Amino acid sequence: xxxxxxxxxxxxxxxxxxxMAAIENQQVVFILEDHQKNLHVAVIMDYTNPSFTVNCQSNxxxxxxxxxxxxxxxxxxxxxxxxxxxxTKSKDSGDAAGVFTQEKKKKKDKRERRVSGGDSxxxxxxxxxxxxxxxxxxxxxxxxLMKTYLKVYKHKKQMILDRQQHLKGGVDKLNEAxxxxxxxxxxxxxxxxxLNQKQExxxxxxxxxxxxxxxxxxxxxxxxxQHEGHIRSPSRCEKEPPSFxxxxxxxxxxxGGGNAQRAQALFALAWFHAVVQERRTFIPQGWTKFxxxxxxxxxxxxxxxxxLVAMGTLRWDYMHGLMENAIYGGRVDxxxxxxxxxxxxxxxFNGEVISGSxxxxxxxxxxxxxxxxxxxxxxxxxxxxxxxxxxxxYFGLPANxxxxxxxxxxxxxxxxxxxxxxxxxxxxxxxxDKWQKELSPVLNLWKKLNSEVNLTKQITRQSAHRMSISSxxxxxxxxxxxEHFNALRLVQDVHRSxxxxxxxxxxxxxxxxxxxxxxxSLMRNETPGAWQAVWEGPEDPFQYLRSLVSRTLACKxxxxxAESGTLLNEPLDLSELFHPDTFLNALRQQTxxxxxxxxxxxxxxxxxxKIGVNSKMPVKLTGLQLEGCAFDGARLTESRADSPSVxxxxxxxxxxxxxxxxxxxxxxxxxxMPLYMTQEREKxxxxxxxxxxxxxxxxxxxxxxxxxxx
Length: 710
Description:
The protein is of the alpha+beta class and 710 residues long. It has 25 helices and ten strands. A five-stranded mixed sheet has the order 6-3-10-8-9. Strands 1-7-2 form a three-stranded antiparallel sheet. The protein has a two-stranded antiparallel sheet with strand order 4-5. The protein starts with 6 loop residues before the first helix and ends with a strand.
């Protein structure tokens, strides 16, 4: 090539030679020589020449550094022997990393070299090669076929070896487990004597209870299915004493030999059992969920009391521990419910209430003074003095608890009515008229909400740019930007889902499984699971859509304030966020940066005073609501019968402060009150310290708790 030879000339020559080869069927060798930069040498050698082998051995660079192009076919004998050479060589190099003992090497040299597939595998390579077109069946392609086979073979072999190793490990674990089981069986055999002794004692107690059950009517709990929705009408458990206080009660009481303290403790146990059972009437304020307290718990408690009496002393701490951790408390899985139960145990089972033959210093309950004897009639007289209806004061609940109960009953009735309104027809077939009738309210609501603010088009490049640089900003700002970005994405997902449903109804789109799943959920008056997976909001789709739009708009305002640096200058309403607990964690992280300390070294504090909290990053919270009592910012007060069930509380200042500073300033007379996301009390955001004037148990039993504004 000369200086004037360029790409254009190359294409012209290449086109001419291609025409000669393809159209005129002439053999053409096109050789280019670049005398300016590179020099390419093409050496044409005849392998049939007697000096071919000598020339290749004398010039090894021809084999190692040059590209060899075979312009003639290999012989059939070479084509058949080549797979054996390639495959066995690869296996030898990969067998045990190429390391052999001397003995194995001798045996390997003696035995005939074979492959697992035999001659059929070797002939298969040649058959595949010969099945290709003549212009494509080159030696290079033949070598590539064998290399591909070896690659697949090694991959499959490694998979089998890995699987074998995995199974071997599983067998080893099973063997270890067998050893452990044998050891446990041996230890169990050593304890068999003690177990038999305990079993005899349990059989005696069971026999006593069985005799009582056969001679008297057992007042068992109603089945759980009668408490669907966690709401049930009050039953008169207080008017129906347990078996040992019923018809055959005198004999059971007399079994204590006239021990007044035992009789008082049994009556206190019966009272405690009735209180924890009937408190389930006021879910979620009484208990956050329905717990299956039953006669077995009562029987176990009575057995513990008898054992303590037999020991000669009533150890109340022992009684509290067993009741809390093993018997009644073993059914409770919520820490705040367990706190209520512990409060009852400490109030009912103590020396000031159960004093034996001496006069008690404190009553068991409202106007319930325990007799100082073991006379069965006196205890029956107390039971008959109870009112015909359960008073909230029996449970320590506020006087307006009926308002909360009626609200929950109403919500449950509405939910059941919605279930009854669902179509009883099968939903496996598409009915356009039915879809249009039942889904139009949801589609119209979303159209109205979106038309006012047009959120579906607010994710722009600017939003994406903000997210890309959010990692360089403060944790609070980064969280709020992420919250807003995810909210807009959820809005778009909801809009896309509803738009597809609308298109299917109009007939402009085919029905897909995803669209059908969304439509079925909406027709059942349920929020689709795909939406709930992104943000777990209200179950009602109408409430979900309204809450989604309002929170998204609120997040936009939070972003503007955070970017301008004015977010923490005014009270914040956490109900405007999708994840308020994450916001408090971001506040913790940013505070730790300011203090240059670890996050574990900070504790959460709250204050209701106007001076707030002495912290580098205090945050004022507003919009909090309280149920179970009233609070004016200084002290808690009981709710009256005509008081609203939910009241607002003053602004609260919260912050994360170093642990040493917090321990030095924590007031003693406070109660840690949970702040829930909603009034259903399912998810806790944080706990706030509230002044209680030293009456902690009183407010715990009232079920007092705070919520974010709906």
